[in-house]
Design a protein that fits this description.
By secondary structure, this protein is of the alpha/beta class. The chain is 41% helix and 13% strand. The chain contains 20 helices and 15 strands. 48% of the residues are buried. This is Glycosyltransferase. Keywords: Glycosyltransferase, Transferase.
Length: 504
Amino acid sequence: MKASKQSFTGPSSPRAKDSPTPTQMEKTVVLYPGLTVSHFVPMMRLAGSLLEHGYAVSVAMIIDPAVMGDTAFAAAIGRAAAAMPSVRFHTFPPVEDPPRLAPGPQFLASYFHLVRRYNDRLHDFLCSSTRVHAVVVDSMSVSADALEVTKRLGIPGYVMFTSGAAALAAFAQLPYVLGEGGRKSFKELGDAPVEFLGLPPVPASHLFAEVLEDPEGDTYKTAMAGLSRIPDTDGFLVNTVESLEARAVDALRDPRCLPAGRVMPPVYCVGLGPFLGGIESEADERHECLAWLDAQPDRSVVFLCFGSTGAANHSAEQLKEIATGLEKSGHRFLWVVRAPHGGDPDLDALLPDGFLERTGSRGRVVKQWAPQAEVLRHGATGAFVTHCGWNSVLEGVAAGVPMLCWPLHAEQKMNKLLMVGEMGLAAEMVGWQRGLVEAAEVERKVRLVMESEEGRQLRARAAQHQEGAAAAWSDGGSSRAALALFLSDVDRRWQARARGGEAA
C-alpha cells in the first residue's frame, strides 16, 4: 500500500516513531549517506534492497539547515521517509558552531571537516544500537574518518560508491599514476591523456576539479589524501551493473590496479536495484508533466534535465541558446529550468520573448524539478539531454533512451567518455568545453538523436544496455548475486565477531 505523504522532521517525527526499531529485527545495517541528493538516493535504493532480504535498516543523518541550505536534499529525505516506512531515520543533534560548506574549490575540504565533526555522534549512535551487522558509509565520508569510528567499535565498515566502476578505478589509481619521476601535475597536462588500467585514455582536463588545482595547495592535497584511503575499507558497494563497465570492474579486481603493498577491497556491483526511481514514484500527486507526456506520441519528446541538486547550472545566456535551439529543431521537448542564481526562475525573463507561446503546443518547461526516473521511463520520452551525473546515466540506461552529454562538474566528464565511447549510447554537446553550447549545436544534436541513422544506432545500443540492466537484477543476475555475496560476507564477519573476534 502506498505510504502517505509526510514531511520528515527527524527521529521525533510520526514516521520515525512508527518504524520498527533495530532491536525488533534480527539483523541491522546502518547506512550513513552523503549530504547531497546524488549521494543520498543510491543509499535509499540500497536500503530497499536490504529490506527485501530481511534486514532492518537504520539511516543516520546529518541535517543542519545552518550549514546545508539545500531544499532539494531535504525534499529527497522527506520523500524517502514517506515511501519507506520500515526504515528508521535518525538525525544527529547539531554540533556547536558548525562549519559552513564552502563554495568552489574549497568545498571538498569544508565537507570533510563538517562530516568529521559528527564522528562522535556516529560513535554514540552505533553504541546505542543493537545487533549492527555492518555500517555502509557514503564514499565522501571515508576522508572524514567515518570508517575509523566503525573500526574502533569492531563493526565491519563498507563504502557506497555512488558513481560507476570506471570512476572508482580512476580515483583509486590517481594518487599513483604520475609516479615519482617529477612528471607534470595534472593541471599542467592540459588535454594530454592520463593512462589508467581498465579505462580508455582520459584527458587530464576531464578529471575532477580538485586534482586540477595547484599540487602544493590544500585543495589538491586534501583530495589526494582522500583518494589514497580508498583501500582502507572492508568493501565497496558500487552503483553500477557489471556488464555496463566490464573493463573497469576487471581492473578493480586486478592486483595491478594499485602499487605493490596496496590491495583493493572486494567490489560488489549492486546497481539498478528494484527500487530504481521508487522514491520519486511514491508521491501522492502525479506530477503534471507526466500527464502532458501522456498526450504525446511514443518516443517523440526530448527531455532536458541537469541534475537534482536544486542548484543553478546554466547562465542566462546559455538558457536562451538552449531555448532557441529547441525551437528551431521542431521537436517536442520537456525541459527542467533553474534560475542562474538560484531561487524561483522567472521564465518570461530568462527565455526569449514569446518562446513559451510559440512552443506551447509541443513543449513544456518545468521549474526546478521533475520526477526524472518516471519521465525517462515514460513511453513518450525519446532522448535525454543530461549532465552525465551517474544516477542520471543509470536511469537513462534503465529506460533505454539515447542520450546527449553535457557534463558540468565532478566526474561527469569521465562519465561522458564512457557513454560516448565504450557504451556507445550517447553523443556529445561539444560546446560545453568552450563554456557555451550554441543554439545551432542544440538544434543539430537534437535532430541527430531524433532523426538520423546515427540516432537510430544510439537508440539500438541503448535498448541493448537496457536489456542488460534488467537482467542484472533478475534471478541469477549479476547485481542480485553481488548483493547476496555482500550479505554473505557481512554475516560471516558478524559470526566471527560473535565467536569472540576471530579473524573474518
